[in-house]
Input
Amino acid sequence: MKLYYHPLSGHAHRARLFLSLIGQNVDLVEVDLAKGEHKQPAFLELNSLGQVPVLVDGETVVQDSNAIMTYLAKKLGKTEWLPEDPIGAARIQRWLSIAAGQIAYGPAAARLVTVFGAKFDTGEVIGRAHDLLKVVEQELASRDWLATERPTIADLALYSYIARAPEGNVDLSAYPKVGSWLTRIEQLPGFVAFVKTPVGLAA
Ligand SMILES: N[C@@H](CCC(=O)N[C@@H](CS)C(=O)NCC(=O)O)C(=O)O
Output
């Protein structure tokens, strides 16, 4: 398998982390986002949206970090990471939707401002990040993992951008349960870290 990625992309880290936690070998192919390689015809053939990550498994091409985790869990029978029972699957999907919504438009966007110079309203995106973090803190008050009694792809979908939220000037100090949950993920066998950038509160 090949994973087209960029080391500073939290979406790509999400996919890479899952591959590593399940012990799946993968060739990492870095896409030069700064040079616009992701908008060139060769890459657009892999992903018409021109975004990393993309997984290539033989003849099969899978775009989108959450879709990649779903594909891998289903293909490799990792039901402990993506349960098949109706309510288990629904609980995972809820968090994947949050990852593609509130995470992308909250902490991920706040970090895009400081790491990549994106032109978002910082007050708005940081405010969205805190709205979400309050909910996650509350949800983690009664359990260790987001969706089930053990880590699942739901936890991985939220991990990377929450872990690096301080780079986008999102202070995590008011969220101790979130902090412990991040540490629990970092202690999983096979954990691979997301590159740190010394910007924002992480400077
Ligand atoms: N929903 C996608 C989002 C992927 C995404 O936004 N990737 C960013 C890097 S973090 C990217 O490639 N951006 C380039 C662009 O959109 O032009 C996923 O989960 O994989």
Residues 9-11, 38, 50-53, 64-66, 100 surround glutathione (CB under 6 Å). The CA atoms of residues 11 and 65 lie 6 Å apart. The longest helix spans residues 86-105. The chain has two domains: 2-76, 86-190.
